[in-house]
Each structure stands twice: as structure tokens, then as C-alpha cells.
Amino acid sequence: MNSNINTANSSKLFWINCIKIFATFLVVMQHSISHEWVRLLDIGGSQWNIINFIFMLTRTGVPIFIMCSGMGMLSKERTVKSVYMNNIKNLVCLYIAWMLVFGIVDVCSMLSSPLATVRTVINALLKSILFGQYHTWFIIMLLALYAITPLLYEIAKRKNLLQYFLLLSILFTILLPYVRKVEALSRVNTVIQNANMNFVVGHTLYYMIGYYLSGCKLTKKRGLAACLMFILSAGAAFTLSNYQRSIVHSECQSVYAEFSVLGFMMNISIFMVFRFLIENVKPGKVIHSFVSVVVKCGIGIYLFHPLILFLVKNLHGSVSILGGIGIWALSVTVMVILYHLPVVSRIFLGKR
């Protein structure tokens, strides 16, 4: 009986690890192709449409990772002290370590300038730590979610309260914001804003719904329904974004943004599709071990990859997609190497 339980837990851990790795890959790919998509390609051209579709899919990366974080953090009760002394402390230490790296890179680029002084060097280091980089907003957001986890757990452990929370969150995060776009309903929008329902809006929706969906029984019928939902929502988002692009002559990310209706449908359905396809897979020991290591390098891959994005700056068109894959593979390789270096892995990967 214990063997069956361990096998079930191992299978669940495997699909969760796989989808975390997939989410990291999507984020790296998004950053690798965004410069090409936004600035260089002819809008509406065949290559632009290909990259537009890939970019749309990569937008699911952050919500997927937040859902996975909710699964892990809300799976057991955590005291305020344990959250701050373990989760928040570790993430802050990782953030400072990596921002020092970015600060040193900035300093090295400044040293060739005759204007470089001790003061400007120190300012560059402090600026990097205090303000981070363009991609570190995710770390700050995750710290905020960790801080309210003890409160969210009290809701998550009661199914009726969790469902009520998700209902309010979908209403105020996904649906009601569309009122703002209707000028005739401006007074209604004022009433909605006066409600100040900040606790149920934003990324807490994905944090909580990840935990909720991971506990739902996934039958074959529900799995196929999730596949259909993803195909329809992705197809509708791509078609509508292209239609709006033809009007404004620019990319239209708002159609599939994480808090849009179609974006929300894509995010939760791809999460369930991944679970449906991988949950019952029984990998070999080599694959399982590799996945276990790579998933522990996820935060390092996310924080490291902007340092090597310059490698794809000269890749144009669809070739930039291959560049994104290469950036991800190189980031994984570097982080796996760091993972096996005791002191370095503690500093830059939080390995215990």
C-alpha cells in the first residue's frame, strides 16, 4: 500500500515539475523573440504572424508558474514566521545575489567610460539591487503572494470559501474590468472601483486557482474538454488579435493578456491539458532525475537568461524562435552546472 502511495505522489510530482519547466521555457522564449516581433518585422507579414502566435502562447508562462506556486505553497499550513524565515528570506537572498551579478555587469560596461568613478560604480550596484531588472517584477509579485499565503491558506482549506473567493476574483479581475471600456457605463465603473476589492484581484486568482485545479478529479472527459477549451480560446485570441492589428496597425496583446477573458481561458486550460497528458506518465529514472534537477534550477534560469539574450539580437524572423530555444538550452546547461557546485548552488539557486 505504501508503494502505491509513493508511486502516486511521484507521478504527481513529475507532472508538476514538467509544467514548471515548460513555464520557464515559455518565459525565456517570450523574452527572446519580443524584440524581433515588436520592432523589426513587417506587421501582418507571414513571419510576424508566426511569431505573434508563438508570443501569444508564451504569455501563458507566468500564470502557469503562479498556479504551480499556489499548488505548492497552499498544500500545507504555513505560519507567518515560517513563510518569512524560509520562503521569503530565501527568495530575497536569491534576488540580492542575482542583482549583484547584474550590477557587476553594468559596472563592467561603465569602466570603459572616462566618466566612471567610485560613486557611479556604487550607485550602479545599489540601483540594480533596489530597482532590479525588467524581468524581476515577477520576484516582487511572488514575495507579495508569499506574504499573504497564511491568510489564503485559511480560505483554501475550506472548499466553499475557496470557490467563493474564486468567484469574486474572476468577477473583479476578469469580467468587470471590461466595464471600463464602455464609456456609457463610466458611472457603473466608479461604483465598482469604490468597492476596493483589492484582496481578490490580480495574481491571487492564479495562485488560488492553481491549488483548486490541482485538487479537482481529472477524468478523460474533463481532460478532452480542457483540450477543446484551449484550442477554441487560443484560436479566438489569435484571430481577434489579428483583426485588431489590422485596425490599429500594431500588436494587440490585450486580447490574450493574463487578465483578459480569452487569456484566462487559455491559461487554465493549458494547465489542465498539461496535467491530463502527463499526470499518468511513468518516466524512467534518468528522465525523472533530470527533470528533478532542472526544476530546481528554474528560478536561476529565469533570472540568468537576460544576461545572454544578446546572443539572439542578430537573429531575424522565424530564426529567432530557434534562438529562443538555444537561449533556454544554454541557460539550463549553465544552471545545471551551477547546481552541482555546493557553495554557488546555495547562493544562486537556493539549494539546501
Helix amount: over 70%
As a whole number of angstroms, the C-alpha radius of gyration is: 22 Å
Total helix count?
Answer: 16
- How many beta-strand elements? 0
Q: State the low-pLDDT regions, or none.
A: 1-8
Mean pLDDT across all amino acids: 88
Going by helix content, strand content and strand pairing, the class is mainly alpha
- The shape is globular
Query: Termini, distance in Å?
Result: 31 Å
Characterise this structure.
The chain has 352 residues and is mainly alpha-helical. Helices cover 74% and strands 0% of the residues. It contains 16 helices and no strands. Residues 1-8 have low confidence and may be disordered.
Name some characteristics of this structure:
single chain; 74% helix; 16 helices; mainly alpha; 352 residues
